[in-house]
Amino acid sequence: MSLTITNTLTGRKEPFETIEPGKVKMYVCGPTVYAEAHIGHAMSAMVFDIIRRYLEYRGYQVIHAQNFTDVDDKIIVRASELGISPDRLAEDMIQEWMAQTAILNVKPATIYPRATQEIDTIQNLIEKLISTGHAYHVPGSDVFYRVTSFEDYGKLSHRKLDDMLAGSRIYVDPNKEHPMDFVLWKAAKEGEPAWESPWGPGRPGWHIECSAMIQRHLGGQIDIHGGGSDLVFPHHENEISQSESINCGRGLARYWVHNGMLQLSGEKMSKSEGNFVTIRELLDMGGGEIFRFMVLGSHYRSPLAFGQETYDAARRGLERLIGTVRDLDRRDVPGERPDHPLADEVDDVRSRFESAMDDDFNTPVALAALFDLARSINRESEPTPAVRYAQAALQDLAGVLGLRLREPEPRTSDSGPYVDLLVQVRDELRAARQFELADRIRDRLSALGVSVEDSSEGARWRWNA
């Protein structure tokens, strides 16, 4: 069975074919870094981490870009409330995100572009849109994208332009030609971060940054564009219109992939509504691995309900898998496939696991196959080579989903396990030549009293005297 993915653009499940054989370019919208990230953000990060891991398991080279919106109205307002600069707030939140996603076992992205580092590319893109009639500058005000210039506007969200206005409460800016026109370049107000431009001092609008980042880092056309379903409109719709307006007829992304929303007490989680659990709170509960298990237990396109009952059920399920491999020592795993019915069970489970994941990353069915293998292992009374072989296979397949299947660390004041994870993610960043981010992790660890020493055998750390 070939890999298929549900494409939001067409509303259909489609065979997965990459632009370049063996390589996947995947761009996933990251957080706007104005406050602590919540578990809805963690859910989306895990979904695309799982997708990435499985694509790599299938042999693809995945180039994964995840942006940071580090200049925005919300950042400016929140920084003012805290009495710090917007760039300081953004930097602190980015470092917190990197540390927390490392603990959640989310693999580092290949590229972490930031809006403030893409100003030249953004301005060049805006100039092209103006010169081709897709955008216009209102003197003394902003630069707007002209939605009526793009015939297919609304094709991702499956809406018609006229219908978008019916019953809406959109603030109609008198500077706009059409109420749905959106800002590409926002004129600066006093005291706000600003960059010089042909249209006066200002800063980029939200939507244009992603198009510019994809243009600069991924060549303007990608295989997978991902994010939460709340981004379909207007964010991703606007990305399509501005990118494809100057993309010589090429689609921005072959596959638009959106995860469902996380719900708390039956309502969608939202920072603005104050209805959320932060990642920090989740980690304080010791629930990182449990939460990943919850995410895996629901199809990525479906809503995920978070509550004590579902959390406890996930904890029990995870404990069953952990218990199955608890006594595994990899040195006891036979080098060759044993001639035993349990080995046949491993082959069957692996086939079912791959079929489930090939079917639009159907993690609930893939998990069910792992539980079948766990039951077969637990029926064996002795730790024979066949049992060790099956345990190793179970652990390896779980690893494809990002599950470590190990006992949780005791919840004490010992920060050693978290430091281990941060040093590990720093090593991965260095391997990906993301030296600036790697250095920031080292510097933050140093500020906390941890020395990191690099050697030919990898990084080592120690507490400062």
Gap from first CA to last CA: 57 Å
Average pLDDT number = 90
**Rg for CA atoms:** 24 Å
Strand and helix order: EEEHEHHHEEHEEHEHEEEHHEHHHHHHEE
What form results from the Cα inertia axes?
A: globular
The side-by-side strand order for the widest beta sheet comes to 4-3-9-10
Class based on secondary structure composition and strand pairing = alpha/beta
Strand content of the residues, in percent?
A: 5-15%
Low-pLDDT windows of residues: 409-413
Helix count?
15
* Helical content class: 40-55%
Q: State the major sheet.
A: 4 strands, parallel
Number of strands: 15
In short:
By secondary structure, this protein is an alpha/beta fold. The chain contains 15 helices and 15 strands.
Topology, please?
Blueprint: E1 4-7, E2 12-15, E3 23-28, H1 39-57, E4 61-66, H2 73-82, H3 86-103, H4 119-131, E5 135-137, E6 143-145, H5 161-165, E7 182-187, E8 202-204, H6 206-218, E9 222-228, H7 232-245, E10 253-259, E11 262-264, E12 267-268, H8 279-284, H9 288-296, E13 304-306, H10 308-325, H11 341-358, H12 363-378, H13 385-400, H14 416-431, H15 435-447, E14 450-453, E15 460-463
Parallel strand pairs: 3-4, 3-9, 9-10, 11-13
Antiparallel strand pairs: 1-2, 5-6, 6-7, 7-8, 11-12, 14-15
Helix pairs in contact: 2-3, 4-6, 6-7, 9-10, 11-12, 11-13, 12-13, 14-15
